[in-house]
Fold this sequence. Notes:
The structure holds two protein chains of two kinds.
Chain A: H1 15-47, H2 53-67, H3 71-81, H4 88-97, H5 101-127, H6 131-139, H7 144-159, H8 161-174, H9 186-197, H10 200-229
Helix pairs in contact in A: 1-5, 1-8, 1-9, 2-5, 3-5, 5-7, 5-8, 6-7, 8-10, 9-10
Chain B: H1 2-30, H2 34-48, H3 52-67, H4 73-98, H5 102-110, H6 115-145, H7 157-168, H8 171-203
Helix pairs in contact in B: 1-2, 1-4, 1-6, 1-7, 2-4, 3-4, 4-6, 5-6, 6-8, 7-8
Amino acid sequence: MTYDFQWSILWQQPYGQWMLEGIWTTVRLGLLCWAFALTLGIFVGTLRMSRLKPVRMLATAYTELFRNIPLLVQLFFWYFAAPRILPKGLVQFLYYDVNNVEFWVVVIGLSIYTSSRVAEQMRAGLGSIPLEQYHAALSTGLSNFQTYRHVIVPIAMRIIVPPLTTEFLTTFKNTALAMTVGVLETTFMSQQIEAYTFHGLEATTGASLVYFSISMMVTLLMNIVEKKIAIPGFIKRKA
Amino acid sequence: MRGFITTFQLALISIGGGVLLGIVIGFARLSSRKIIYYPASAFVFLLRSIPLILVIFWFYFIIPLLVGRPLMDFASAAIALIVFEAAHFAEIIRAGIQAIPEGQVKAAYSTGLNYMQMMLSVILPQALRNMAPALLTQSIVIFQDTSLAYVIGVKELLRSAAIVDAREVRSFELYTFVGIVYFIFCYSMSLLVKRWEVKRRTSL
């Protein structure tokens, strides 16, 4: 095995600059998608508990549809296939006039995909709340909507914090797929460095370390958050 | 169509390899010997915190160095998937084994079995039965994950669609079709898992 390791390519100019830009894009992409996915996911997940059958079925269909198609296929759909069925004017505006289309395509695709997974977690969280809570809230005079808004959803949210942390990390890792449609994020940059310098191993290792350290930081942070917001009386996670 | 078969093969190989390697690593994570426990834990943590796409690239670059010649794309993707999924399977398996009551272990020892016999014929069969739904769910995830082999040029379902698209320029039909194929397969699998789970719960 003779391979000339040159770790310095990771901070040499212009490659170091590329890496930093890539990391910045990854972070922005991750946070943006997460914000959208969380809002949408909580909403859809709650709708699945609705008493109206059509609403429930629609929410279930949404969740099952987007959960069962690989993310990469969905991204390709939004990027390559969607422009062909949308009205011409809209396509012109969306795909040619907007700067940085790739970025927004990924934001949409990844958000929808993640929201379906969040919705599934949300449903599990809501399902774990005893029915008495619901009856108790109703009997204090809250309306059905108020009950969900002020009692059920807040409790469910706290219960599903650990799985949501995992889900966030998954989202964050999934942003790496954005490279396939040409978003200049960390993985893309590492492959570009490979293309310029033939030092693929160092570049890939560098990118891996970036993901690893961010994941670690988030995990540590969420451990603290989890302890802070744990509801007394519920089973605590063993430290 | 050939793409679908490749996707299928890739999924089967990675599931098989992943489960086997996962069992080994899952056991290593339960070991009381530090020299076994720490490397296995490091392996699991590291692989669980980096994107699969990077793992695929990693093997794509490192295998030629170790072997001295580039491997086929398919083999490279399969190895990457096996290693990556093994880390995920290992966690499922560890959890499954830990869910078996301690009394079972003691009972097995008291009948005179040694560690190997105890694990293989008492603990593992029970644990595997308990874990079956989780393992199957992970298998569905793997089936979806094989689409990532696209990036290093394996001609699986998605890549085949992209190739046809480059020739025929029918993006909408092609990608919708790919989506439908994945959906039908994954959804029917997940329904199957759900049914099975319900059946098991009622039989207990």
